[in-house]
Amino acid sequence: MIRLDRLTKTYVLNGRRKTVADDINAVFPTNVSVALLGRNGAGKSSLLKMIAGTMLPTSGRILSTGTISWPVGFAGSFNAELTGEQNTRFVARIYGVDTKEMSDFVKGFAELGQHFYLPFRTYSSGMRARLAFGVSMAVPFDTYLVDEVTAVGDAAFREKSNRVFYARMEHAGAIVVSHSVGMLRETCQAGAVLEKGKLTYFHDIEEAIDHHMVNMRKAG
C-alpha cells in the first residue's frame, strides 16, 4: 500500500507558481496496478518521482508498507565509467539481491554480449535502455513505477520484455503512466486522474479513462 498524506508540490518558474499536487490524500492499494492519467504538464512524472523518493514534496508525506521501484527503465543513475556488469552488481548490493544471480539474469536478458563488460559510456541509446530495463526487472518490488517505458529492440526482444514485465505484475502492483490507452487497459485494474493538482482515484480503469477523456475534451 502507498498512501499520499496531504501531498503538495509547487514549482516556481519565471516568477510564476505552479502547483502540480495540491494537498492530495490518496491510497494506492497493495497488488493493484493503477493507471496514472492526466494532461501533458499535469504533474504525473513529478508525482512518480516523489513516490520513488527522487523528488521531495513541498509539504506532506508518502507512506508505504512495501518496497517501491525506481521508474522502470531509468538509466540516469548508472555510473558512466563502470561497465554494465559493475553497474548491475552495484544495484544488486544496494537492494540486497544476490549479485551473481542478478548479473546472470541481466546479461542474458539485455543481450549485450561482450558490451556487458565495457563502460556504460560506450553504449548506444538502445543498449542503455536494454540494460536499464533488465536491471529494473531483476529486482523484486511490491510496486513498480512505470513512466512511458516502451521495450526496445526487435520484435522478439520486445515480446520477451513484455513477457517478463507481465510476469512481475502477477505478484506486484504498479503505478503506470502511458499515452497508450490500450497498454493501460491491458496492464491496470484501477486508475487515478491528476487534474489541476487534484487526484481522483477510480477502482475501475474504464471509469478513470472516461473521466480523463472528459477532461481532455474540456481542455479542447
From TrEMBL:
The keyword Transcription does not apply. GO terms for molecular function: ATP binding. Gene3D superfamilies: P-loop containing nucleotide triphosphate hydrolases (3.40.50.300). InterPro entries: AAA+_ATPase, ABC_transporter-like_ATP-bd, ABC_transporter-like_CS, ABC_transpr_TagH-like, Bact_Polysacc_Export_ATP-bd, P-loop_NTPase. Keywords: ATP-binding, Nucleotide-binding, Transport. Pfam families: ABC_tran. Residues 2-219 form the ABC transporter domain. Transmembrane segments: none annotated. The keyword ATP-binding applies. SUPFAM superfamilies: P-loop containing nucleoside triphosphate hydrolases. PANTHER family: TEICHOIC ACIDS EXPORT ATP-BINDING PROTEIN TAGH (PTHR46743:SF2). This is ABC transporter ATP-binding protein. It comes from Paracoccus albicereus.
